[in-house]
Amino acid sequence: MDLLSALPDDVRSHILSFLTTKEAALTSVLSKKWRYLFTRVPILDVDDSVFPYPEGFMDFVDRVLSLQGDSPIERFTLKCEDGVDPDRVNGWICNALRRGVSELYLSINFEGEDYLLPREMFLSRTLVKLKLTSGFGLHWCTGPDATFLPMLKTLHIASEMMSMDCDVKMEEFLACFPVLEEAEMTSMDWIDPVDTVSSPTLKKLTVHTTGMKTIQNPKSISFVTPSLLFFAYSDYAAEDYPLVKLNNVAVARIALSLTEDQTRRMRAPRKDLSEGDVVLQFGNAVKLMNGLQNVKELHLHPDTLEVLSQCCESMPVFNNLKMLIITSDEGRGWQAMPALLRNCPQLEFLLIKGLVHHVTNQCGDACDCIHKKQKGRSLKSCPVKVFVIRGFTGTVKEINMIEHFLDYFPCLKKMNIYVDEDVPTPLKYDRRFAERVLEMIEEFDYSYSCSVQLLYE
User: Fold this and answer.
1) 185-190: which pairs have CB atoms within 8 A and are 24 or more residues apart?
2) Domain of 321, in residue numbers
3) Which of 189, 204, 427, 456 has its CA 20 to 30 A from that of 167?
4) Alpha helices per DSSP H over 156-301
5) In b/e form, how buried is each residue of 8-36, taking b as 16+ CB within 10 angstroms?
């Protein structure tokens, strides 16, 4: 007898739990001792893409569930696409729910199907983790007494469209999960332009909206999540953020999107804007930033910088901020950068993805694009020690920016400049050009007290 077969059944079934259900089923041909062992594994992981035909996949899942009987199941992972019978899919899900499944991961892509998830799933008393993914659409049962998952701690929804039986605002939706700790909702939309994200138990929250339904900026969005530690928020800039309680958030990633027309109007003189222009309200984004004053790590999208240009004078002080990550774009400005850098008195690490940005008269002293009498003032008060630049292409403008930062960051100890090898630039194809750029970087390394390195990634 081989050593593996000599192990106790519980040990061997635990080993099989690291395989997909199809892979585990293949061990049944080894010997009589292995024949039905895979049916004792409390983890079911099935994927129709590894079967040549949908009929064979459906028969396989039916057979496995039949052999397992009523034995407890801990985790059920199901991936399927067109060709698989939706009624049989719901039967499998209900089978797992009856057997007390605690983790349910569903990736269902039925194109053109009016697919309804089983109602039993929305009233489960055993589910702890639920992940729903679809490239098309999923139907969520809502309404009075239609959803209540008292044990759910993790909820991930990633669907191009999530339809509901009735219009339920986010505040009411989250109330269906009284112990929820982690929520991730991508490709979603606000049911109402005035809404509140409220949960006393949430610790990690990711919200990514598309605006596909409303085609407008939200009127008012509030966040009341006092236990939240991680916050990733991507949305069209709202007109107001009246209530923001995010005092314990340590890591925040903020992407407040603008249309090209809104960006143009924001840069225009205020006297040229009509009285009801929505961009006049974007300065209220400072209320969102005020609620994030205690963050230790902050990520900002290019559009977010543009939005924050409307509230430079009221920018909060981030006394706990150690790490600032900024994504730049040639179509978006740095008007908010001086105020931001001045208001980070404990900043140690700065990362900028792309130095190229839209130049305006309000870029301020953080930028070398426009000559200023008080050049570098905001940089002189910034205590950053490590500065990382990504997406470097070797242009004269970038070189001048790097020299500007080296001149005015007083505490800088290390600067790493990364070239993206996957992006076609002269640094990759022109050897002489690359050598000249490297010589300039080496000169910086020699001339300044901090370490300056050109690296490839």
Assistant:
1) 185/155, 185/156, 185/157, 186/157, 186/158, 187/158, 187/159, 187/160, 187/161, 187/162, 188/157, 188/162, 189/213, 189/214, 190/214, 190/218, 190/221
2) 302-457
3) 204
4) 170-174, 260-267, 285-290
5) eeeebbeebbebbbbebbebeeeeeebee
Residues 6+ apart with CB under 8 A from 242: 220, 222, 287
Tell me the C-alpha distance between 292 and 79, whole Å.
38
**Greatest CA separation for the chain:** 88
Say if 334 falls within a structural domain.
yes
Banded model confidence at residue 367, pLDDT cuts 50, 70, 90: confident
Q: State the residue for tokens 């269902």.
A: 108
Q: Is residue 36 part of a domain?
A: no
Cβ contacts of 271 within 8 Å, gap of 6 or more? none
Residue 140: per-residue pLDDT: 74
pLDDT the model gives residue 37: 62
Whether 383 is covered by a domain: the verdict is yes
Cα Rg for the chain, rounded, in angstroms? 27
Neighbours of 44 (CB within 10 A): 25
The beta strands (E) that lie in 199-348 are given as: 204-209, 220-224, 230-236, 244-245, 251-257, 297-300, 323-327
Dist. CA 209–CA 189, nearest whole Å = 5
* Pick from 234, 231, 255: nearest CA to 245: 231
- pLDDT of 398 over the 60 cut: yes
The H or E element that residue 183 is part of is strand 182-188
Number of domains in the chain: 1
Compute the half-sphere exposure of residue 283: CA atoms within 13 Å on the CB side of its CA: 11
Kind of pairing between the strands at 204-209 and 297-300 = unpaired
Q: Does 320 fall in a domain? A: yes
Interatomic CA distance for residues 25 and 27, integer angstroms = 5
Q: Which of 20-34, 101-115, 196-210, 338-352 has the lowest mean pLDDT?
A: 20-34
User: How far is residue 196 from each of residues 164, 186, 257, measured CA to CA in Å?
Assistant: 18, 17, 19
AA letter at 371: H
